[in-house]
């Protein structure tokens, strides 16, 4: 069963606490959901797929519409 924790911290440096939800999978993976605007939506979605402590994928909603505008990944290209 996945383990879920929520934290309040200033992630973006604006002086206001942001909500960070951490979901740890049984396989060692970790998902970080960050709400930087206080609207209850995920603005930053970061994933450590293999549990090695390194973020493998990040999706960022810069416009606040609930859809990722930026997607960065360090995963191998599927062939």
From TrEMBL:
A molecular function GO annotation: calcium ion binding
Top-level lineage group: Bacteria
InterPro entries, per database record: TSP_type-3_rpt (IPR028974)
Protein name: EF hand domain-containing protein
Biological source species: Stackebrandtia albiflava
